Amino acid sequence: MSFNNKTKLDYWTGDKCNSILGSDGYFFRPGVTEKSTLKIFYPELCRSVYLKWDEDKDYKGVAVSKFSFPESMLEDPAINEDNVCFCSKPITSTNNTKEACLKRGFIDYAGCKQGM
After folding, report:
1. pTM of the model
2. Which domain holds residue 57?
């Protein structure tokens, strides 16, 4: 998969955060179950995101599965270390990168939006 002729992003501070993973979010492979993780590359967020099964529902007589973004995806990097590489500019002066990052629910997209 590529985006703007790149197979990896260069906005973030780590390979994992710069990876382009998943579909465009409109289609998923057959056989999706409640154990599946649905990966989506979301250009507006300058990152790949993922959905986890939330619940089964009925929509106009059709059985459907609801998938949602897990809270851990935008968790404070001090709690979820997978988010440390999304910390682009420290918000405070400290030697501890996790303490300097934006907190839960926030990501600094300025670096990626300037390049778009």
Report:
1. 0.76
2. 15-114
> Counting beta carbons within 10 angstroms of the beta carbon of residue 58, is it exposed (0 to 12), middle (13 to 18) or buried (19 or more)?
exposed
Helix, strand, coil fractions of the chain, as percent rounded to 5: 20, 25, 50
Number of domains in the chain: 1
Q: Is residue 5 part of a domain?
A: no
Whether 28 maps to a domain, the answer reads yes
- Condensed to tens digits (0 to 9), the pLDDT of residues 7-59 reads 999 888 889 999 999 888 778 888 899 999 999 998 888 899 999 999 999 99
Q: What is the 3-state secondary structure (H, E, C) of 57-91?
A: EEECCEEEEEEECCHHHHCCCCCCHHHHHHCCCCC
Position 4 in a domain: no
Residue 6 lies in a domain: no
Cβ–Cβ under 8 Å, residues 64 and 56 = yes
